[in-house]
Specification:
Strand order of the largest sheet: 1-2-12-11-26-27-13-14-17-25
Number of helices: 6
Low-confidence stretches: 1-34, 77-95
Oligomer: single chain
Largest sheet: 10 strands, mixed
Helix content: 10-25%
Strand content: 25-35%
Shape: globular
Distance between the termini: 30 Å
Radius of gyration: 22 Å
Length: about 475
Protein backbone atom coordinates (compact mmCIF):
# COMPACT_ATOMS: atom_id res chain seq x y z
CA UNK A 1 0.00 0.00 0.00
CA UNK A 2 1.35 3.43 -0.94
CA UNK A 3 0.88 6.32 1.48
CA UNK A 4 2.14 9.67 0.20
CA UNK A 5 1.94 13.37 1.07
CA UNK A 6 -0.34 15.52 -1.05
CA UNK A 7 2.18 18.37 -1.36
CA UNK A 8 4.34 18.60 -4.49
CA UNK A 9 6.90 21.00 -3.02
CA UNK A 10 10.50 19.82 -3.16
CA UNK A 11 11.29 19.81 0.59
CA UNK A 12 8.31 17.62 1.33
CA UNK A 13 9.64 14.94 -0.97
CA UNK A 14 11.73 13.89 2.02
CA UNK A 15 8.50 13.29 3.94
CA UNK A 16 7.50 10.86 1.20
CA UNK A 17 10.65 8.94 2.02
CA UNK A 18 9.27 8.26 5.50
CA UNK A 19 5.80 7.27 4.35
CA UNK A 20 6.42 5.49 1.07
CA UNK A 21 5.88 1.95 2.31
CA UNK A 22 5.36 -0.18 -0.77
CA UNK A 23 7.57 -3.26 -0.77
CA UNK A 24 9.56 -4.95 -3.45
CA UNK A 25 10.82 -8.30 -4.55
CA UNK A 26 13.64 -8.92 -6.97
CA UNK A 27 15.14 -12.07 -8.40
CA UNK A 28 18.31 -13.60 -9.60
CA UNK A 29 19.54 -17.08 -10.38
CA UNK A 30 18.53 -19.93 -8.07
CA UNK A 31 21.35 -18.96 -5.68
CA UNK A 32 19.29 -15.98 -4.52
CA UNK A 33 18.41 -16.45 -0.85
CA UNK A 34 15.87 -14.97 1.50
CA UNK A 35 15.11 -14.97 5.18
CA UNK A 36 12.74 -12.91 7.31
CA UNK A 37 15.29 -10.10 7.61
CA UNK A 38 17.15 -9.93 4.30
CA UNK A 39 17.35 -10.86 0.64
CA UNK A 40 20.67 -11.64 -1.05
CA UNK A 41 21.00 -10.94 -4.79
CA UNK A 42 24.06 -11.90 -6.84
CA UNK A 43 25.59 -8.98 -8.74
CA UNK A 44 26.65 -9.67 -12.31
CA UNK A 45 29.39 -8.00 -14.34
CA UNK A 46 29.15 -8.62 -18.07
CA UNK A 47 32.04 -9.38 -20.39
CA UNK A 48 34.10 -8.22 -22.19
CA UNK A 49 35.56 -6.13 -19.38
CA UNK A 50 36.47 -2.54 -20.26
CA UNK A 51 40.09 -1.51 -20.61
CA UNK A 52 41.39 1.13 -18.17
CA UNK A 53 41.21 3.76 -20.92
CA UNK A 54 37.63 2.78 -21.68
CA UNK A 55 36.81 2.96 -17.97
CA UNK A 56 38.30 6.44 -17.76
CA UNK A 57 36.33 7.62 -20.78
CA UNK A 58 33.05 6.20 -19.49
CA UNK A 59 33.65 7.46 -15.97
CA UNK A 60 34.35 10.96 -17.29
CA UNK A 61 31.10 10.86 -19.27
CA UNK A 62 29.20 9.70 -16.20
CA UNK A 63 30.61 12.43 -13.97
CA UNK A 64 29.80 15.11 -16.53
CA UNK A 65 26.22 13.85 -16.38
CA UNK A 66 26.13 13.89 -12.59
CA UNK A 67 27.76 17.33 -12.35
CA UNK A 68 25.30 18.67 -14.92
CA UNK A 69 22.47 17.31 -12.80
CA UNK A 70 23.75 19.31 -9.83
CA UNK A 71 24.02 22.47 -11.96
CA UNK A 72 20.46 21.95 -13.20
CA UNK A 73 19.14 21.77 -9.64
CA UNK A 74 21.18 24.79 -8.57
CA UNK A 75 19.90 26.89 -11.46
CA UNK A 76 16.32 25.92 -10.71
CA UNK A 77 16.80 26.88 -7.08
CA UNK A 78 18.16 30.30 -8.00
CA UNK A 79 15.21 30.86 -10.29
CA UNK A 80 12.87 30.05 -7.39
CA UNK A 81 11.59 27.03 -9.25
CA UNK A 82 10.79 23.71 -7.64
CA UNK A 83 13.41 21.20 -8.87
CA UNK A 84 12.06 17.95 -10.17
CA UNK A 85 13.35 14.82 -8.47
CA UNK A 86 14.91 12.80 -9.91
CA UNK A 87 16.47 14.97 -12.63
CA UNK A 88 19.21 12.82 -14.06
CA UNK A 89 21.09 9.58 -13.67
CA UNK A 90 24.52 8.45 -14.68
CA UNK A 91 23.61 4.78 -14.60
CA UNK A 92 23.96 4.12 -18.31
CA UNK A 93 27.24 5.97 -18.69
CA UNK A 94 29.30 4.06 -16.16
CA UNK A 95 31.82 1.48 -17.32
CA UNK A 96 31.84 -0.22 -13.95
CA UNK A 97 28.29 -1.44 -14.20
CA UNK A 98 26.92 -4.23 -12.06
CA UNK A 99 23.62 -5.88 -12.91
CA UNK A 100 20.81 -7.82 -11.26
CA UNK A 101 17.98 -9.86 -12.72
CA UNK A 102 14.54 -8.55 -11.80
CA UNK A 103 11.32 -10.51 -12.24
CA UNK A 104 8.25 -8.39 -12.88
CA UNK A 105 4.66 -9.29 -13.56
CA UNK A 106 2.27 -12.18 -13.09
CA UNK A 107 3.44 -14.55 -14.45
CA UNK A 108 7.00 -13.23 -13.92
CA UNK A 109 9.05 -11.78 -16.79
CA UNK A 110 12.85 -11.47 -16.40
CA UNK A 111 14.94 -8.32 -16.92
CA UNK A 112 18.62 -7.43 -16.61
CA UNK A 113 18.97 -4.04 -14.87
CA UNK A 114 21.90 -1.76 -14.09
CA UNK A 115 22.49 -1.32 -10.34
CA UNK A 116 23.03 2.38 -9.60
CA UNK A 117 23.46 4.17 -6.27
CA UNK A 118 23.48 7.47 -8.19
CA UNK A 119 19.81 7.42 -9.20
CA UNK A 120 16.39 6.68 -7.71
CA UNK A 121 14.00 5.54 -10.41
CA UNK A 122 13.49 1.87 -11.23
CA UNK A 123 12.53 1.56 -14.90
CA UNK A 124 12.31 -1.13 -17.56
CA UNK A 125 11.63 -1.06 -21.29
CA UNK A 126 7.99 -1.87 -22.06
CA UNK A 127 6.49 -3.55 -25.10
CA UNK A 128 4.87 -0.27 -26.17
CA UNK A 129 8.34 1.20 -26.80
CA UNK A 130 8.13 3.04 -30.14
CA UNK A 131 11.82 3.21 -30.95
CA UNK A 132 13.31 0.03 -29.53
CA UNK A 133 13.47 -1.98 -32.74
CA UNK A 134 17.10 -2.92 -32.11
CA UNK A 135 16.16 -4.70 -28.90
CA UNK A 136 15.14 -8.32 -28.64
CA UNK A 137 11.41 -8.92 -28.14
CA UNK A 138 12.29 -10.77 -24.93
CA UNK A 139 13.85 -7.66 -23.36
CA UNK A 140 10.65 -5.69 -22.84
CA UNK A 141 7.86 -5.96 -20.31
CA UNK A 142 4.61 -7.09 -21.91
CA UNK A 143 2.19 -5.37 -19.56
CA UNK A 144 -0.84 -6.88 -21.26
CA UNK A 145 0.46 -10.35 -20.36
CA UNK A 146 0.56 -9.51 -16.65
CA UNK A 147 -2.53 -9.69 -14.48
CA UNK A 148 -0.98 -7.41 -11.82
CA UNK A 149 0.30 -4.47 -13.93
CA UNK A 150 -1.33 -1.15 -13.08
CA UNK A 151 -0.28 2.39 -14.09
CA UNK A 152 -0.65 5.15 -11.53
CA UNK A 153 -3.24 7.77 -12.37
CA UNK A 154 -1.98 11.30 -12.84
CA UNK A 155 -3.98 12.44 -9.81
CA UNK A 156 -2.45 9.76 -7.53
CA UNK A 157 -0.15 11.18 -4.89
CA UNK A 158 2.64 8.87 -6.07
CA UNK A 159 2.65 10.68 -9.40
CA UNK A 160 4.08 13.75 -7.65
CA UNK A 161 7.35 11.88 -7.08
CA UNK A 162 8.44 11.74 -10.73
CA UNK A 163 9.22 14.45 -13.30
CA UNK A 164 6.67 14.84 -16.08
CA UNK A 165 6.91 15.76 -19.78
CA UNK A 166 6.33 19.41 -20.61
CA UNK A 167 2.73 20.47 -21.26
CA UNK A 168 1.34 17.43 -19.49
CA UNK A 169 -2.09 18.07 -18.06
CA UNK A 170 -4.05 15.86 -15.71
CA UNK A 171 -7.77 15.43 -16.22
CA UNK A 172 -8.93 14.56 -12.72
CA UNK A 173 -12.34 13.52 -13.98
CA UNK A 174 -11.03 10.77 -16.25
CA UNK A 175 -10.59 7.35 -14.69
CA UNK A 176 -7.84 6.27 -17.10
CA UNK A 177 -5.52 9.29 -16.94
CA UNK A 178 -2.15 7.55 -16.62
CA UNK A 179 0.78 9.16 -14.79
CA UNK A 180 3.37 10.06 -17.43
CA UNK A 181 7.01 10.48 -16.46
CA UNK A 182 10.07 11.78 -18.29
CA UNK A 183 13.48 10.97 -16.83
CA UNK A 184 16.25 13.01 -18.44
CA UNK A 185 19.98 12.49 -18.81
CA UNK A 186 22.50 15.30 -19.03
CA UNK A 187 23.48 14.42 -22.61
CA UNK A 188 19.88 14.86 -23.80
CA UNK A 189 18.94 11.19 -23.58
CA UNK A 190 15.69 10.31 -21.89
CA UNK A 191 13.30 7.57 -20.93
CA UNK A 192 9.60 8.38 -21.08
CA UNK A 193 6.57 6.31 -20.20
CA UNK A 194 4.00 5.47 -17.53
CA UNK A 195 4.81 5.50 -13.82
CA UNK A 196 3.30 2.20 -12.77
CA UNK A 197 3.18 -0.54 -10.17
CA UNK A 198 3.73 -4.23 -10.51
CA UNK A 199 4.33 -7.44 -8.59
CA UNK A 200 7.91 -8.64 -8.28
CA UNK A 201 9.02 -12.15 -7.43
CA UNK A 202 12.17 -13.39 -5.72
CA UNK A 203 13.27 -16.89 -6.59
CA UNK A 204 14.57 -18.22 -3.29
CA UNK A 205 16.16 -21.48 -2.20
CA UNK A 206 12.88 -22.46 -0.55
CA UNK A 207 10.53 -21.42 -3.34
CA UNK A 208 9.48 -17.89 -4.19
CA UNK A 209 8.51 -14.68 -2.46
CA UNK A 210 6.16 -12.11 -3.96
CA UNK A 211 6.18 -8.40 -3.33
CA UNK A 212 3.32 -6.25 -4.54
CA UNK A 213 3.07 -2.67 -5.79
CA UNK A 214 6.64 -1.93 -6.79
CA UNK A 215 6.59 1.62 -8.21
CA UNK A 216 8.58 1.76 -11.47
CA UNK A 217 8.78 3.43 -14.84
CA UNK A 218 7.32 1.47 -17.77
CA UNK A 219 9.34 3.04 -20.60
CA UNK A 220 7.68 3.26 -24.01
CA UNK A 221 10.13 5.77 -25.48
CA UNK A 222 13.93 5.84 -25.27
CA UNK A 223 16.23 8.27 -27.04
CA UNK A 224 19.89 9.26 -26.94
CA UNK A 225 23.14 7.34 -26.50
CA UNK A 226 22.89 6.96 -22.73
CA UNK A 227 19.95 4.54 -22.88
CA UNK A 228 20.26 3.09 -26.38
CA UNK A 229 24.01 2.99 -27.09
CA UNK A 230 26.56 0.22 -26.54
CA UNK A 231 27.45 1.51 -23.06
CA UNK A 232 24.11 0.18 -21.80
CA UNK A 233 25.59 -3.28 -22.41
CA UNK A 234 22.36 -5.15 -23.10
CA UNK A 235 20.51 -3.98 -19.99
CA UNK A 236 16.77 -3.41 -20.17
CA UNK A 237 16.60 -0.68 -17.55
CA UNK A 238 17.98 0.65 -14.28
CA UNK A 239 17.42 -0.25 -10.65
CA UNK A 240 18.05 2.91 -8.64
CA UNK A 241 19.48 2.52 -5.13
CA UNK A 242 19.64 6.23 -4.28
CA UNK A 243 18.34 7.96 -1.16
CA UNK A 244 15.08 9.17 -2.74
CA UNK A 245 11.63 7.74 -1.91
CA UNK A 246 11.08 5.89 -5.20
CA UNK A 247 14.37 3.98 -5.22
CA UNK A 248 14.51 0.21 -5.00
CA UNK A 249 16.13 0.32 -1.57
CA UNK A 250 13.69 2.89 -0.19
CA UNK A 251 10.65 0.92 -1.31
CA UNK A 252 12.05 -2.21 0.33
CA UNK A 253 13.24 -0.35 3.37
CA UNK A 254 10.15 -0.58 5.55
CA UNK A 255 10.17 -4.34 5.21
CA UNK A 256 13.90 -4.94 5.62
CA UNK A 257 15.10 -2.43 8.19
CA UNK A 258 15.73 0.54 5.86
CA UNK A 259 19.21 -0.61 4.97
CA UNK A 260 21.05 -2.40 2.20
CA UNK A 261 24.61 -3.45 1.59
CA UNK A 262 26.79 -4.78 -1.17
CA UNK A 263 30.11 -6.47 -1.67
CA UNK A 264 31.93 -5.77 -4.94
CA UNK A 265 34.67 -8.27 -5.72
CA UNK A 266 37.43 -8.21 -8.34
CA UNK A 267 35.64 -9.42 -11.46
CA UNK A 268 38.90 -9.82 -13.44
CA UNK A 269 39.95 -12.84 -11.35
CA UNK A 270 39.17 -16.21 -12.90
CA UNK A 271 36.90 -17.58 -11.67
CA UNK A 272 35.58 -14.31 -10.24
CA UNK A 273 34.49 -14.33 -6.58
CA UNK A 274 30.83 -13.65 -5.99
CA UNK A 275 29.62 -10.07 -5.68
CA UNK A 276 26.23 -9.54 -4.13
CA UNK A 277 23.60 -7.03 -3.05
CA UNK A 278 21.92 -7.62 0.29
CA UNK A 279 18.61 -5.95 1.14
CA UNK A 280 18.33 -5.82 4.92
CA UNK A 281 20.82 -5.92 7.76
CA UNK A 282 24.25 -7.52 7.53
CA UNK A 283 23.74 -8.94 11.03
CA UNK A 284 21.25 -11.49 9.67
CA UNK A 285 23.86 -13.80 8.16
CA UNK A 286 25.71 -16.66 9.82
CA UNK A 287 28.75 -14.40 10.11
CA UNK A 288 28.08 -11.08 11.87
CA UNK A 289 30.77 -8.66 10.66
CA UNK A 290 31.97 -5.76 12.80
CA UNK A 291 31.54 -2.58 10.78
CA UNK A 292 33.10 0.86 11.09
CA UNK A 293 30.60 3.68 10.62
CA UNK A 294 30.75 7.19 9.27
CA UNK A 295 27.69 9.48 9.11
CA UNK A 296 26.14 10.23 5.73
CA UNK A 297 26.28 13.91 4.80
CA UNK A 298 23.31 15.81 3.37
CA UNK A 299 23.28 17.98 0.26
CA UNK A 300 19.85 19.49 -0.37
CA UNK A 301 20.70 19.97 -4.06
CA UNK A 302 21.74 16.33 -4.50
CA UNK A 303 19.51 14.34 -2.14
CA UNK A 304 19.93 11.15 -4.17
CA UNK A 305 23.66 10.69 -3.60
CA UNK A 306 25.46 9.06 -0.66
CA UNK A 307 27.85 11.74 0.62
CA UNK A 308 30.53 10.99 3.20
CA UNK A 309 32.88 13.39 4.98
CA UNK A 310 36.68 13.16 4.61
CA UNK A 311 38.71 14.69 7.43
CA UNK A 312 42.27 13.92 6.33
CA UNK A 313 44.36 11.87 3.90
CA UNK A 314 47.46 9.77 4.59
CA UNK A 315 50.11 8.25 2.34
CA UNK A 316 52.26 5.72 4.19
CA UNK A 317 50.67 6.97 7.44
CA UNK A 318 51.93 10.50 6.80
CA UNK A 319 49.17 13.08 6.99
CA UNK A 320 49.04 15.29 3.89
CA UNK A 321 48.52 19.02 4.02
CA UNK A 322 45.07 19.32 2.49
CA UNK A 323 42.66 21.98 3.69
CA UNK A 324 39.38 20.59 5.12
CA UNK A 325 37.55 23.05 2.87
CA UNK A 326 38.58 20.91 -0.11
CA UNK A 327 36.16 18.18 1.07
CA UNK A 328 33.33 20.43 2.29
CA UNK A 329 29.92 20.92 0.67
CA UNK A 330 29.45 24.66 0.16
CA UNK A 331 26.22 26.68 0.26
CA UNK A 332 25.76 26.20 -3.50
CA UNK A 333 25.94 22.42 -3.20
CA UNK A 334 29.45 22.16 -4.66
CA UNK A 335 32.05 19.77 -3.31
CA UNK A 336 31.73 16.86 -0.96
CA UNK A 337 32.51 13.20 -1.59
CA UNK A 338 30.09 10.62 -3.01
CA UNK A 339 30.27 6.82 -2.75
CA UNK A 340 29.14 5.56 -6.17
CA UNK A 341 28.62 2.03 -7.51
CA UNK A 342 28.54 3.06 -11.18
CA UNK A 343 31.93 4.81 -11.42
CA UNK A 344 35.01 2.60 -11.73
CA UNK A 345 37.91 4.91 -10.85
CA UNK A 346 38.14 7.34 -7.93
CA UNK A 347 37.96 11.07 -8.68
CA UNK A 348 39.28 13.65 -6.20
CA UNK A 349 39.00 17.44 -6.01
CA UNK A 350 41.92 19.09 -7.82
CA UNK A 351 43.83 20.42 -4.75
CA UNK A 352 43.64 17.06 -2.97
CA UNK A 353 44.53 15.10 -6.09
CA UNK A 354 47.58 17.24 -6.78
CA UNK A 355 48.89 16.79 -3.22
CA UNK A 356 48.26 13.02 -3.22
CA UNK A 357 49.92 12.58 -6.62
CA UNK A 358 53.01 14.48 -5.44
CA UNK A 359 53.22 12.28 -2.33
CA UNK A 360 53.07 9.12 -4.43
CA UNK A 361 55.68 10.34 -6.90
CA UNK A 362 58.10 11.05 -4.05
CA UNK A 363 57.73 7.54 -2.67
CA UNK A 364 57.55 5.41 -5.82
CA UNK A 365 61.08 4.54 -6.95
CA UNK A 366 60.19 2.30 -9.90
CA UNK A 367 60.96 3.34 -13.49
CA UNK A 368 58.32 4.75 -15.82
CA UNK A 369 57.10 2.57 -18.69
CA UNK A 370 58.53 3.09 -22.16
CA UNK A 371 55.12 4.15 -23.50
CA UNK A 372 52.92 6.54 -21.52
CA UNK A 373 49.36 5.51 -20.65
CA UNK A 374 47.01 8.23 -21.79
CA UNK A 375 44.85 9.67 -19.04
CA UNK A 376 46.96 8.44 -16.12
CA UNK A 377 49.49 10.69 -14.39
CA UNK A 378 51.55 8.04 -12.59
CA UNK A 379 52.48 4.71 -14.12
CA UNK A 380 55.36 2.37 -13.27
CA UNK A 381 57.16 -0.51 -14.95
CA UNK A 382 57.01 -3.51 -12.63
CA UNK A 383 58.81 -6.03 -14.86
CA UNK A 384 61.34 -8.05 -12.88
CA UNK A 385 59.92 -6.89 -9.52
CA UNK A 386 59.54 -9.96 -7.34
CA UNK A 387 57.91 -8.29 -4.36
CA UNK A 388 55.98 -5.20 -5.29
CA UNK A 389 55.65 -2.66 -2.49
CA UNK A 390 53.57 0.40 -3.40
CA UNK A 391 52.63 3.27 -1.04
CA UNK A 392 49.47 2.86 1.02
CA UNK A 393 46.70 5.44 0.79
CA UNK A 394 44.08 5.95 3.49
CA UNK A 395 41.25 8.36 4.25
CA UNK A 396 40.23 9.38 7.76
CA UNK A 397 36.47 9.89 7.65
CA UNK A 398 34.10 11.83 9.87
CA UNK A 399 33.70 9.82 13.06
CA UNK A 400 37.40 8.98 13.17
CA UNK A 401 37.21 5.76 11.14
CA UNK A 402 39.89 4.88 8.60
CA UNK A 403 39.23 3.69 5.04
CA UNK A 404 42.52 2.07 4.02
CA UNK A 405 42.11 -0.35 1.10
CA UNK A 406 44.94 -2.46 -0.30
CA UNK A 407 47.06 -0.98 -3.08
CA UNK A 408 45.33 -3.18 -5.66
CA UNK A 409 42.23 -1.00 -5.21
CA UNK A 410 43.98 2.06 -6.65
CA UNK A 411 46.90 0.72 -8.70
CA UNK A 412 45.64 -1.12 -11.77
CA UNK A 413 47.20 -3.05 -14.65
CA UNK A 414 47.02 -0.98 -17.83
CA UNK A 415 49.44 -3.14 -19.89
CA UNK A 416 51.84 -6.04 -19.37
CA UNK A 417 54.11 -5.17 -16.43
CA UNK A 418 52.61 -1.67 -16.19
CA UNK A 419 50.60 -0.40 -13.23
CA UNK A 420 48.98 3.02 -13.01
CA UNK A 421 47.52 5.03 -10.16
CA UNK A 422 43.74 4.75 -10.62
CA UNK A 423 42.97 8.20 -9.23
CA UNK A 424 41.75 11.12 -11.31
CA UNK A 425 41.32 14.84 -10.72
CA UNK A 426 38.01 16.71 -10.62
CA UNK A 427 38.52 20.08 -12.24
CA UNK A 428 34.90 21.22 -12.56
CA UNK A 429 34.20 23.92 -9.92
CA UNK A 430 30.69 22.51 -9.46
CA UNK A 431 31.88 18.92 -9.13
CA UNK A 432 32.37 16.58 -6.22
CA UNK A 433 34.83 13.82 -5.36
CA UNK A 434 33.76 10.23 -6.06
CA UNK A 435 34.84 6.98 -4.41
CA UNK A 436 34.49 4.54 -7.31
CA UNK A 437 33.74 0.84 -7.20
CA UNK A 438 37.36 -0.21 -7.79
CA UNK A 439 38.34 1.53 -4.53
CA UNK A 440 35.43 -0.29 -2.83
CA UNK A 441 36.38 -3.81 -3.96
CA UNK A 442 36.70 -6.38 -1.22
CA UNK A 443 34.70 -4.29 1.24
CA UNK A 444 31.22 -4.87 2.57
CA UNK A 445 29.45 -1.48 2.47
CA UNK A 446 26.22 -1.02 4.43
CA UNK A 447 23.91 1.93 3.68
CA UNK A 448 21.76 2.52 6.77
CA UNK A 449 18.97 5.03 6.08
CA UNK A 450 17.40 5.00 9.55
CA UNK A 451 20.66 6.02 11.21
CA UNK A 452 21.93 7.97 8.21
CA UNK A 453 25.30 6.25 8.20
CA UNK A 454 27.62 4.20 6.01
CA UNK A 455 29.26 1.12 7.46
CA UNK A 456 32.17 -0.79 5.98
CA UNK A 457 34.50 -3.68 6.73
CA UNK A 458 37.15 -5.74 4.92
CA UNK A 459 35.98 -8.89 6.70
CA UNK A 460 32.35 -9.19 5.69
CA UNK A 461 32.36 -10.30 2.06
CA UNK A 462 31.75 -13.98 2.72
CA UNK A 463 28.29 -14.66 1.28
CA UNK A 464 25.84 -14.61 4.22
Amino acid sequence: MVVLSTSSSFPLLFLFFLTFTSHLCNSLPPSTTFNSDSIILPLLHLTPYPTPSQSLSSDTHRLISLFSSLNHRRNNKHKNKIPQLPVTSGASTGSGQYFVDLRLGTPPQNFLLVVDTGSDLVWVTCSACRNCSARSPTTALFARHSSTFSPYHCFDRACQLVPHPNHTHCNHTRIHSACRYEYSYADGSLTRGFFSRETTTFKTTSGSLKHHNLAFGCAFELSGPSVTGPSFNGATGVIGLGRGPISFSSQLGHRFGNKFSYCLMDYTISPPPRSYLLIGGTETGAVKPTLKYTPLQNNSLSPTFYYIGIQSVYVERVKLRISPSVWAIDELGNGGTVVDSGTTLTFLAEPAYRTILTAFKRRVKLPSPAEPTLGFDLCVNVSGVKRLNLPRLSFKLVGGVLLAPPTGNYFIDTADNVKCLALQRVTAPSGFSVIGNLFQQGYLFEFDSDRSRLGFTRHGCAVP
